């Protein structure tokens, strides 16, 4: 459990162009991309964000381009997880694949405000805001398999190079 | 209970042999499409996975189109990364900068998209394949690395939404107006995680370029993919392109849909989407006085020969307004050559426009026409998010090629009917 981390809250339909503008798509790594995170939406985010902080969005978070650079830039800022009502499919998969937890928790989205302080368990999707407990929806089995492997790279490694081949 | 086209096409690409909406299946696509912006991460992740050789190089298509040709040393490195990966892996379909065009427009030309096919691409507009009775799905870099490694990827089969097209479009109404109208109706998450399926008697009035414009923007309503019914126009096209024919898919009469919607094409008028969302479509005649500094005719949706002909039909008689930069980007080399043969490039040059080689260019804010703070553009592209083509405080209106050309001529958003 991470205690007293800050919430950075945005609205519905946060698109990946505003998370990571196209002009930075030649960059590849979390470290390279981190300085430009949310450059099109919240220019102060990078200066303000502390490791463990949570990004909260509304509906259809991560809509638009398939760029994996967007979740990489967020992860590069040490964000512990994202909470939203729901996600655009590609962004959701990308985040899971690179090990950035993304939770669906409409109740928390409704109650939490920009700048609030919350407690977070980014493994179980459990949150505490003003003494109230919130539980995110569980992951689908196909998603859980990838999370448990430690991301898609490890998932493929385990499948193609098993420790105990048959 | 009948099956949608989506269910049928995915059933044919999984070992289970059966796929219903909501099922999770490992899907083996016919084509894995990788571009230069996502490709570098994909190649690195493939190495991290410990995979030396891709599962099947014959199914891989590599296209350098985003930062193509490269704009600086960093993008030159990314392009080289993709090119050399293709050579090392023995990928025949290795389209370097200036060698092919924009990926989604190129795929059907080279016979890698056709009825019954599935494309997994590292770009959200992979759904463009739907125009050809195929299904394209977009994925991120690591997912595509897994697909290259394993030859398959997990997919939750999307439920279908049926769009019935009726009547024939009139006047300056194009595929762009049809899809902008549909997205405005549905909202940008109105088809979230669903598949848009198109058919109906109106389909016969839409050429493949118009269908491509529609399919391309399915993702802007949140759809995962999109599939048009097959007809003689598609069959005639693939006879030329060399698609190794699979069985076309048709929907069952009693297929289950999330909902159905009818679009009366004969009642549509040109639509323009205001910034900052493709879902902000409004009738062109309601837009008022909007001055523009740049017009961009191109991208994976609307840089077809049809678009170029539409724009040239107006620019034959008019010059580009002195305060406007008009950038014309044919989507592929084949379209560029066709435009040259038809004299369209001459028309553009004579009118004062600039014609670019095929590239994703400024559509995604990469290069070749970035907007300054406070500038406004009309573009035939597919996204008008904040800062998409440049400065965060620049504005993009999405419209068809006639409307775009009209804006270039008058320097403000204009009904093309007033210029003929």
Characterize this entry briefly.
The complex is a heterodimer of chains A (166) and B (420). Chain A has 166 residues and is an alpha/beta fold. Chain A has eight helices and seven strands; from the N terminus they run E-H-H-H-E-H-E-H-E-H-E-E-E-H-H.
**Count of discrete domains of chain A:** 1
Give the H and E element order of chain A.
Answer: EHHHEHEHEHEEEHH
Low-confidence stretches of chain A: none
Name of the CATH architecture of chain A: Alpha-Beta Barrel
Walk me through the topology.
The complex is a heterodimer of chains A (166) and B (420).
Chain A: E1 2-9, H1 16-19, H2 30-33, H3 45-48, E2 54-56, H4 69-76, E3 81-84, H5 89-98, E4 102-104, H6 106-111, E5 117-121, E6 126-129, E7 132-135, H7 141-149, H8 152-160
Chain B: H1 5-11, E1 24-27, E2 31-35, H2 36-48, E3 60-63, H3 73-89, E4 93-95, H4 103-109, E5 118-121, E6 135-138, H5 141-150, E7 153-156, E8 160-166, H6 175-186, E9 195-199, H7 208-216, E10 225-228, H8 232-241, E11 257-264, E12 271-273, E13 281-283, E14 294-297, H9 299-302, H10 305-315, E15 325-328, H11 333-341, H12 344-351, E16 354-355, E17 376-379, E18 395-398, H13 401-410
Parallel strand pairs in B: 2-3, 2-5, 3-4, 5-6, 8-9, 8-11, 9-10, 14-15, 14-17, 15-16, 17-18
Antiparallel strand pairs in B: 1-7, 12-13
Notes on the protein architecture:
The complex is a heterodimer of chains A (166) and B (420). Chain A has one domain (2-160): Aconitase, domain 4, CATH 3.20.19.10. Helices cover 33% and strands 19% of the residues of chain A. Chain A contains eight helices and seven strands; from the N terminus they run E-H-H-H-E-H-E-H-E-H-E-E-E-H-H. A seven-stranded mixed β-sheet of chain A has the order 4-3-2-1-5-6-7. In chain A, helix 7 (141-149) crosses helix 8. By secondary structure, chain B is an alpha/beta fold. Chain B folds into two domains: 5-265, 2-Layer Sandwich (Aconitase, domain 3); 274-419, Aconitase, domain 3 (2-Layer Sandwich), CATH 3.30.499. Chain B is 30% helix and 18% strand. Chain B contains 13 helices and 18 strands. Chain B has helices at 5-11, 36-48, 73-89, 103-109, 141-150, 175-186, 208-216, 232-241, 299-302, 305-315, 333-341, 344-351, 401-410; strands at 24-27, 31-35, 60-63, 93-95, 118-121, 135-138, 153-156, 160-166, 195-199, 225-228, 257-264, 271-273, 281-283, 294-297, 325-328, 354-355, 376-379, 395-398. Chain B has a five-stranded parallel β-sheet with strand order 4-3-2-5-6. A five-stranded parallel β-sheet of chain B has the order 16-15-14-17-18, with helices on one face. The longest helix of chain B has 17 residues, at 73-89. Chain B is globular and about 60 Å long. The N and C termini of chain B lie far apart (52 Å). Classes of the chains: A alpha/beta (166), B alpha/beta (420). Chains A and B meet through helix 4, helix 5 and helix 8 of A and helix 2, helix 3 and helix 5 of B.
């Amino acid at each position: 459990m991470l205690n007293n981390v800050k919430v950075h809250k945005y609205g519905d339909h946060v698109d990946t162009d505003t998370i990571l503008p196209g002009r930075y798509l030649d960059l590849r790594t979390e470290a390279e991309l981190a300085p430009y995170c949310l450059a099109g939406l919240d220019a102060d985010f990078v200066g303000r964000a502390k490791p463990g902080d949570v990004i909260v969005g509304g509906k259809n978070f991560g809509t638009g381009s398939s760029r994996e650079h967007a979740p990489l830039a967020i992860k590069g800022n040490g964000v512990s997880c994202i909470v939203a009502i729901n996600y655009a499919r590609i962004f959701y998969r990308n985040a899971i694949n690179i090990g950035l937890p993304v939770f669906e928790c409409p109740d928390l989205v409704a109650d939490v405000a920009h700048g609030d302080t919350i407690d977070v368990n980014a493994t179980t999707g459990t949150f505490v805001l003003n003494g109230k407990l919130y539980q995110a929806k569980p992951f689908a089995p196909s998603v859980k398999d990838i999370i448990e492997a430690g991301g898609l790279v490890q998932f493929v490694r385990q499948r193609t190079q098993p420790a105990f081949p048959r | 209970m009948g099956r949608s086209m989506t269910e049928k096409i995915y059933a044919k690409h999984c070992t289970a042999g059966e796929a219903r909406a909501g099922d999770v299946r490992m899907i083996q696509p016919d084509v894995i499409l990788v571009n230069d912006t996502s490709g570098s991460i994909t190649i690195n992740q493939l190495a991290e996975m410990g995979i030396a050789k891709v599962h099947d190089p014959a199914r891989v298509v590599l296209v350098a189109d985003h930062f193509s040709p490269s704009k600086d040393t960093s993008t030159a490195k990314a392009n080289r990364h993709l090119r050399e990966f293709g050579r090392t892996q023995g990928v025949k379909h290795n389209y370097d900068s200036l060698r092919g065009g924009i990926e989604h427009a190129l795929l059907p030309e080279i016979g890698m998209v056709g009825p019954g096919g599935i494309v997994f691409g590292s770009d959200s507009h992979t759904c463009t394949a739907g125009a050809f009775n195929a299904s394209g799905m977009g994925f991120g870099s690591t997912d595509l690395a897994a697909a290259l490694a394993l030859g398959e990827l997990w997919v939750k089969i999307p439920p279908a939404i049926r769009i019935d097209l009726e009547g024939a479009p009139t006047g300056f109404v194009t595929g762009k107006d049809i899809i902008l109208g549909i997205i405005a109706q549905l909202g940008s998450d109105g088809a979230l995680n669903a598949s848009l399926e198109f058919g109906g008697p109106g389909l016969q009035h839409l050429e493949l370029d118009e269908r491509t414009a529609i399919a391309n923007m399915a993702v802007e309503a949140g759809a995962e993919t999109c599939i048009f019914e097959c007809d003689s126009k598609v069959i005639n096209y693939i006879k030329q392109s060399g698609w190794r024919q699979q069985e076309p898919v048709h929907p069952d009469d009693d297929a289950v849909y999330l909902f159905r919607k009818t679009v009366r094409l004969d009642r549509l008028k040109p639509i323009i989407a205001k910034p900052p969302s493709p879902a902000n479509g409004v009738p062109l005649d309601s837009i008022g006085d909007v001055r523009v500094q740049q017009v961009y005719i191109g991208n994976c949706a609307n840089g077809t020969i049809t678009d170029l002909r539409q724009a040239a039909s107006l620019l034959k008689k008019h010059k580009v307004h002195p305060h406007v930069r008009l950038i014309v980007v044919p989507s592929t080399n084949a379209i560029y050559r066709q435009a040259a043969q038809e004299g369209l490039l001459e028309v553009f040059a004579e009118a004062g426009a600039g014609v670019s080689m095929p590239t994703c260019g400024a559509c995604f804010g990469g290069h070749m026409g970035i907007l300054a703070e406070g500038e406004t553009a009309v573009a035939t592209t597919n996204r008008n998010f904040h800062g998409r083509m440049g400065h965060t405080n620049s504005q993009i209106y999405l419209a068809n090629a006639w409307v775009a050309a009209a804006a270039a001529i008058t320097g403000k958003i204009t009904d093309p009917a007033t210029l003929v």
